[in-house]
Amino acid sequence: AANKINLIPQDFFAELCEQIIHHLNHKIPGVNTAELCQRIQTSGIEIDIGDLAKIANILSFLFSTAARNNLSTDELVTTLGSAVSTLPKHALQVIRHVWNEQGKSITASEDARNVATMGQFVDMKWKLGVAMSSDTCRSLKYPYVTVTLTVADPSGQITDKSFEMTIPQFKNFFRQFKEIASVLETV
């Protein structure tokens, strides 16, 4: 992972670190590595989204462990310097700066950690479509609903999950959401 970190420009690496800190502080539901990866690739850097996700997981583990152990900036950098000699110098500088500025704000409450381990619902989008025809059938005229759920997994990676439903399935789905909303209002 250290050689992949070397590919990431310092400003993008700093943005990744700050997003992770915000996620650990529960200010944002997760780190959108897909969007960040696309921006890095647009700037001319060849990096795979899987590699960026691994780097985000490593940094998340690093910052949460440092917060749990109440490490100062110097303790963190010293530990990193002795344990990871292959970490690029610019990455150590960014980690030092981000931890010095925002590291102490990470909350380590038990409730926050339990919520983070379950993942989090971020957004839902839906659209209505009609299949007009296909290679095997000339006239379908079959309506369907495509639902895209945006979720942040426990490590903070934001992903989209899409599925299609028939109109009766969507009506049942909608009815269940209304039941959930009415139960939540009573709490």
Automatic annotation (TrEMBL):
<feature type="domain" description="COMM">
    <location>
        <begin position="120"/>
        <end position="187"/>
    </location>
</feature>
<dbReference type="Pfam" id="PF07258">
    <property type="entry name" value="COMM_domain"/>
</dbReference>
<protein>
    <recommendedName>
        <fullName>COMM domain-containing protein 6</fullName>
    </recommendedName>
</protein>
<dbReference type="InterPro" id="IPR017920">
    <property type="entry name" value="COMM"/>
</dbReference>
<comment type="function">
    <text>Scaffold protein in the commander complex that is essential for endosomal recycling of transmembrane cargos; the commander complex is composed of the CCC subcomplex and the retriever subcomplex. May modulate activity of cullin-RING E3 ubiquitin ligase (CRL) complexes. Down-regulates activation of NF-kappa-B. Inhibits TNF-induced NFKB1 activation.</text>
</comment>
<dbReference type="GO" id="GO:0051059">
    <property type="term" value="F:NF-kappaB binding"/>
</dbReference>
<dbReference type="InterPro" id="IPR047155">
    <property type="entry name" value="COMMD4/6/7/8"/>
</dbReference>
<comment type="similarity">
    <text>Belongs to the COMM domain-containing protein 6 family.</text>
</comment>
